[in-house]
Amino acid sequence: MSRKKTAFAAALAGAAMAVVPVAAQAANPIVVGITSEIGTIPGKAIANGATLAAEQINAAGGIDGRPIKLVIEDDHLSTTDAIRSFQRMVRQDHAVAIIGTFVSEVALALEPWAARLHEPYLITGAAANELSEYVHKDFKAHQYIFHAYMPAAYLARAVCDASKATLVDQFHMKTAVVMSEDAAWTKPLDAGYDECLPKIGLKVLDNIRFAPNTSDFTPIYQKIEQLKPNVIIAGWAHVGVQPTVQWAQQKVPVALAGINAQAGSDVFWKATNGATEGVITGSTAAPGVAITPKTLPFTDAYVKKFGYSPAYSAYSTYDAVYALADALKRAKSTKPLPIVHALEQTNMVGTQGHIAFQGAKSKFAHALKYGPDYVTGVALQWQAGQQKCIWPLKLANAKAKFPGFVPVPKS
Amino acid sequence: MLAIQILIDGFAISTLYALGALGFTLIFGVSGVLNLAHGGLMVIAAMIAWYLDTSLGTGPYVGALAGLAVCLVAALVTYGGIVRPIENSRAVPAHERELFVLTATLLWGVMIQEALSYAFTNSPITVQPLIAGTVSILGVRTPINEIFIAAVAWAVMGALWLLVNRTQVGRRLLAASINPRALTLLGFELDRIYLFVWIIYGLLAGIAGVLLGSFLGSGSDYVPGLTGSAFTIVVLGGLGSVSGTLIAAYIVGYIETLTAYLVSPSLREVPALILLVVVIYMRPQGLLGRR
Question: In chain A, is it the N or the C terminus that has fewer CB atoms within a 10 Å radius of its CB?
Answer without folding.
Answer: C
